[in-house]
Each structure stands twice: as structure tokens, then as C-alpha cells.
Specification:
Number of strands: 19
Radius of gyration: 27 Å
Helix content: 40-55%
Strand content: 5-15%
CATH topology of the largest domain: Rossmann fold
Shape: elongated
Structural class: alpha/beta
Number of helices: 24
Number of domains: 3
Distance between the termini: 82 Å
CATH superfamily of the largest domain: Thiamin diphosphate (ThDP)-binding fold, Pyr/PP domains
């Protein structure tokens, strides 16, 4: 019966990939036994309650093998039909790589290799923190595992190694990775590109390493899983030796990796595995087995947990209420929280952000995060001490110099649920984090990415640390709210938007240098994306549009040019994303079509051309010098700006 159930997964995968004439059958054929064993004997999920907070999480980090996951989820009872499988890689709910929120039973979008396993580290971290906060003796309310299936490619990605290093350091013992070790990747043998000793490598990162010599030996797979669960102080990687394309004439070759095997090879596989069924035909016995071992078993586990939760609620009502609040996404930040915030007349927005985050962390105890070894610079620090193996309730995560992993782990924490997660870094190194930021936008999850040192105002650190094109690149990502606040008021409002967001990740971009706290900036204006922070007095000669520290520069230029007879409006545009979502009527009220417009920003001019053909920006790399000297060398001064504005207005 078990072989029948395993082969049902294999043939659904082969049939869907053959029908689509596209896909990756190799991992489906080779890894089906370990995935079967995980689902039927270990994974605690309830198909009817996908968002059960204490479910085990399963991540197919090798996302190209998506048909492995779709077949298992179909057989287990998720709302994925045979027709959906027949529609694999077409418009529908079975895309080429798993997509969170798009297909039932998918915990994360795991297309880019290394991202899934890194998300899993975030999930395991979230589980350990929530368990420390809420569990009581006899009441393990939060008590689940995070399982991963990854491949050779995952473990060659830098982001995965950064994440694994942190997971071992933090002792995330409920993270268990099944490594589909078949010695083959797309271009040929793994040995062409890689000769790492996985046992030594992961051992040095404080992981437990186990090995299963034959991936078809499900008893050995189970034995390894049992041993993995017993080590609560170390994450575990189980290297499972498999044959890519198992059962076909392509077995053990790269030809089985990323192309359909075809009908002829299906016939060979059918004979070798004694599978006497037509394409997409699954015997009822297989369905019955998965129903019993995944669906019904999972429901029993959840019912038992429900009884435990009811008793917990009765004995610890305050903790139960707090737990409910953690998972309540309907948050509305009251601006009166910040009424006693002490601000200087001139202050870096990174400093204001740090003060704002401190207040928010006291009010919302489910806020967690940290910086990439830059806390003293970014001011992005969590509360309640450092999160560590000895102090799980700490809400400050020391990510170390691991920007790639930091962003992916932040996404994993958010995906887990119950926590609001943020990360902090220098803006120029958003380049390292962009894949994860992009995935957050694709997944519609409200991760928060805090960046400081937002311009050539960084000064002496020079062009390697001075952002130019980063704003343009991130603003181009759909469903990503990039906010560059002008001063304290806008910074507080940016955090309010980020914390209240439900389906959109937020990037908050902040200054290193002090900026004046303006009189006319607005909380409400920021939430509209752009607004008039200084109107013209009589006749509108032109509009200056700026973001961040350049709003103050625009206001200075407006005042100076007033003495020359120019009546200008100044518009602060902290978020193009939110402004573009506002009504056309509002947009026209802020930026009337008849007026000449000049956009001002210390960075790439590219994103501003949709609002104005006149942009005063910086389209070259910076220089290493104190800020004023750097701005002088780059031609970005108040005097140069005024000359440019006059030229535009006279044209």
C-alpha cells in the first residue's frame, strides 16, 4: 500500500509535467518516498483549517519540483483537483513554482533557490519565540516543527548558507531539513561545481547531521526524522541519497532534471514500478491512505490541541487574550502614542525612526526584528533584549553581517504569523536583499525593511556606500511601498503605515544626516503618498516635487526664489506607490497638469519622469568626501538647484 501511495505521487508528477510539456520530473521521482513519509507519519496539518497556528510548516525549498507538492496536497485533500493538475504551468492554481496565497497548502513562494530554506529559518525562529512567550507548564500551545525539502542547488546559494549559519548559532532545534542529495544539477554532475563536505560544513555551523543511504528506504527516513526531533538544541539536516529521475532510463542524469520524460519513458517507468493506471488515474486505495494518514490524523491532532487551548484559555485568560491579539492583523496605530516624543529642531530621520520603533515595540509586543550588525547606525533594534538560544523572549535579532538571509528570514517570520517583523540595514545594501524584498511583494506579506544612509549624504564612505539607483530599482517593484520621509512627522507616519499594512511590504528609507523638522509636513499627507507642504501665495509659476531630505532643500529654494518674483508650490512625495493609488482628482489637486514641475532627489532621476520632464537628480556614482564637499563635487547644491529651476521656468 505504501508503494502504491508513493507511486501515485510520482505518476501524477510525471503526467502533469508531460501534459504541460514543461517542468522538473527528476525531483518528483527521486524525492517522493521521503516526502510521502514526511506527510503521512510526521507532518501535523489540518486540511480544513489551513491557518491553524500550531500546524507544522512544510517548505519545498527546491520549488522547481512543485509537482511533488501539488501531487501530495491533492492526494491529502487540499482543494487542488485533478483538473488543476492537468492545468499545471498554465493559468490557474498550479503554477511552475509554488506561490503563497495562490495555491492551498503552500507556505511560501519558493522559486529562487535558497529562499525557501531561509524562510524556514524565520518560521522556526518565530515558533521558538512564541513558545517562550506563551507556553506554560503542561500547556505547549505553540509546539510545532518546520520541515524543508531542499536540493543541491539550494545549498550552493549564499542566502541559504547565511541562514543556516544563523539557525545553528541560535539553536533552532525544531527546524529539520531533508536534503535531496542526488549528485545532479541542471548542467550535469554536482561535482562539476561543488565538492563541499556537507557533514563537516553543517557540523561546523552547529547542526546535527544525519544520513540516509537509500531514499527509497522509508523506514530509515523515519528513523532519521525521529532522531532529528529528539535534538531540541540543534537544527538537523538529513542527507537523503536519491536517484534523480528514479525508474526511468534517464535516472541519475541531468536530462531528468528540467524537462518532461515523455510518454515512452513513462511506459518504461510504468513497467518498472508495476503501475497499471492511465495518465492522471489514481487508485482509490491511494486516496484512502492519504485521507487516513494525513487528513484524519491531522484533524485528530488539531482537536486535541483545541481542547488544550480551551483549558489554557480558562487557566490563563490574559495570555490567551494576548495570543489572540498577536494574530489579529487589524491594527490601527494611534498617533497620540508619539505626543511625548522629544525631537530636536534638526534630527536624522534614522534617529526619529529608532525612537518611534521603541514606542511601537512597547505598545505592540509582537514586533520583532533587528539589523545586520548595524544597530548603532540604523537604530532599528528590537525590544526585550537579544533573541538567543538562552533568551527566546528577546525581540532583538542580531542578524550579523547577513543581509541576504536577514530579509528572507524576516519574510519567514511574517509568513509564520503572529509577529510583525522588521529588518535594518544600509540602503545601498538593499541590493543584497532585493530578491527577498521582491518575494515579499509577490506574496502580499507586510514585511518591513528599514534602510538608513539613504543618499550621497553618507559622505566619506564614498560611492560603494552611497545609493544612487536603489530608489529607482525598488520603486519599480509592484506592490512594494517605498517610503522616504522628509522629517520626524513623516517618519512617524511611515511607521504607522508599515505596521498597519496587511498585504504590502514596506521599505522605509532614512537619512544619516540631520534634517530640519518642517512646520508643514503632515501625517495625513504621507498616507496619501504626496501632498502640498507649502502652497504658492498668488500665481502658480511652478511646482517643486521632492522626497526625503530634499524636501527641506526645495523649501529653501522656494523661499529664495520668492525674492526673485517666482511663486512656487512645494510638494513632498514620500511614497510614489501610495500617491499613484490615490484618486485622479486628488493627484490633479496636488500636481495640476498646467503647471511646470521640477522633481528633486539625490539619486537616479529615472523614477521621477512620470511626474515631470525636469529632474534635478544624480545620475552618476558618488565621491568620498565630507557631505558638503561631496554635494559640491556632484553639483547638488542649493545654488545649482536654483539655477536649474530658473532655467526651467524661463523655458
Amino acid at each position: 500500500m505504501k508503494n502504491l501511495a508513493i507511486n501515485a505521487v510520482r505518476f501524477l508528477g510525471v503526467d502533469a509535467i508531460n501534459r504541460a510539456n514543461s517542468g522538473h520530473p527528476g525531483i518528483v521521482l527521486g524525492a517522493a518516498p521521503m516526502a510521502f513519509q514526511l506527510f503521512t507519519e510526521n507532518l501535523n496539518i489540518d486540511i480544513k483549517k489551513e491557518d491553524w497556528i500550531n500546524r507544522d510548516r512544510f517548505i519545498l525549498s527546491a520549488g522547481h519540483g512543485s509537482m511533488l507538492l501539488y501531487a501530495l496536497n491533492h492526494l491529502s485533500g487540499y482543494p487542488i483537483s485533478l483538473e488543476d493538475l492537468k492545468n499545471f504551468r498554465q493559468i490557474g492554481i498550479t503554477p511552475g513554482h509554488p506561490e503563497y496565497g495562490h495555491t492551498a497548502g503552500v507556505e511560501t513562494t519558493s522559486g529562487p533557490l535558497g529562499q525557501g530554506i531561509s524562510n524556514a529559518v524565520g518560521m522556526a525562529l518565530a515558533e521558538s519565540h512564541l513558545a517562550a512567550v506563551f507556553n506554560k507548564e503542561g500547556f505547549p500551545i505553540i509546539n510545532h516543527h518546520t520541515y524543508v525539502i531542499c536540493g543541491d542547488g539550494d545549498l550552493q546559494e549564499g542566502v541559504a548558507m547565511e541562514s543556516a549559519s544563523l539557525a545553528g548559532h541560535l539553536g533552532l532545534g525544531k527546524l529539520i531539513v531533508l536534503f535531496d542529495s542526488n549528485d545532479i544539477q541542471l548542467d550535469g554532475k554536482v561535482s562539476l561545481a561543488n565538492s563541499d563536505d556537507i557533514k563537516s560544513k553543517f557540523g561546523s555551523m552547529h547542526w546535527q547531521y544525519l544520513k540516509v543511504a537509500d531514499g527509497n528506504d522509508i523506514a530509515s527516513v523515519q528513523k532519521a526524522l525521529n532522531k532529528a526531533k529528539k535534538d531540541i538544541n540543534r537544527p538537523t539536516i538529513i542527507e537523503v541519497k536519491t536517484q534523480i529521475g528514479f525508474g526511468t532510463e534517464l535516472e541519475g542524469t541531468s536530462k531528468a532534471h528540467g524537462a518532461p520524460i515523455g510518454e515512452a519513458q513513462r511506459d518504461i517507468l510504468k513497467d518498472r514500478l508495476n503501475w497499471d493506471y492511465a495518465p492522471f488515474e489514481v487508485p482509490q486505495e491511494a486516496y484512502s491512505y492519504y485521507r487516513k494518514r494525513v487528513f484524519l490524523r491531522g484533524q485528530r491532532v488539531r482537536r486535541k490541541w483545541n481542547n488544550l487551548l480551551a483549558a489554557y484559555k480558562e487557566q490563563y485568560p490574559n495570555d490567551f487574550d494576548l495570543l489572540s491579539q498577536y494574530y489579529d492583523q487589524d491594527i490601527h496605530v494611534d498617533l497620540s502614542l508619539f505626543s511625548d516624543l522629544v525631537l530636536a529642531d534638526k534630527e536624522a530621520t534614522r534617529s526619529v525612526s529608532g525612537k518611534t520603533l521603541n514606542i511601537l515595540s512597547k505598545t505592540y509586543p509582537n514586533i520583532i526584528g533587528g539589523s545586520a550588525d548595524l544597530t548603532s547606525s540604523t537604530k532599528a533594534k528590537g525590544a526585550d533584549g537579544d533573541f538567543s538560544a538562552e533568551h527566546r523572549i528577546g525581540r532583538n535579532i542580531n542578524f550579523g553581517v547577513r543581509e541576504h538571509a536577514m530579509a528572507a528570514i524576516t519574510n519567514g517570520i511574517v509568513l509564520h504569523g503572529g509577529l510583525k517583523a522588521f529588518s535594518g540595514g544600509f540602503f545601498v545594501f538593499s541590493d543584497y536583499m532585493k530578491p527577498s524584498i521582491r518575494l515579499a511583494a509577490i506574496m502580499n506579506i507586510p514585511s518591513i525593511f528599514v534602510f538608513t544612509h539613504d543618499s550621497v549624504g553618507v559622505g566619506e564612505d564614498g560611492p560603494t556606500h552611497q545609493p544612487i539607483e536603489q530608489l529607482a530599482g525598488l520603486r519599480a517593484i509592484p506592490n512594494l511601498n517605498v517610503i522616504r520621509p522628509a522629517d520626524a512627522r513623516e517618519t512617524i507616519a511611515a511607521w504607522k503605515v508599515a505596521i498597519e499594512s496587511k498585504t504590502t511590504p514596506t521599505v522605509i528609507v532614512l537619512t544619516r544626516q540631520g534634517v530640519k523638522n518642517q512646520e508643514n509636513t503632515s501625517f495625513e499627507g504621507l498616507e496619501n503618498g504626496a501632498y502640498v507642504c507649502q502652497y504658492e501665495e498668488n500665481e502658480l509659476h511652478g511646482i517643486l516635487i521632492a522626497a526625503g531630505s530634499e524636501v527641506g532643500l526645495a523649501l529653501e529654494a522656494q523661499k529664495s526664489l520668492k525674492t526673485k518674483g517666482y511663486d512656487l508650490r512645494v510638494v513632498s512625495m514620500p511614497s510614489m506607490f501610495m500617491f499613484d493609488q490615490s484618486s485622479k482628482k486628488y493627484q490633479k489637486s496636488v500636481l495640476p497638469g498646467r503647471a511646470k514641475k521640477i522633481a528633486i532627489e539625490m539619486g537616479s532621476s529615472m523614477p521621477w519622469y512620470k511626474y515631470s520632464k525636469n529632474v534635478f537628480g544624480i545620475d552618476r556614482f558618488g565621491v568620498s568626501a565630507p557631505i558638503n564637499q561631496a554635494l559640491e563635487a556632484l553639483g547638488f547644491t542649493k545654488e545649482a538647484l536654483e539655477v536649474y529651476i530658473e532655467k526651467v521656468l524661463k523655458a
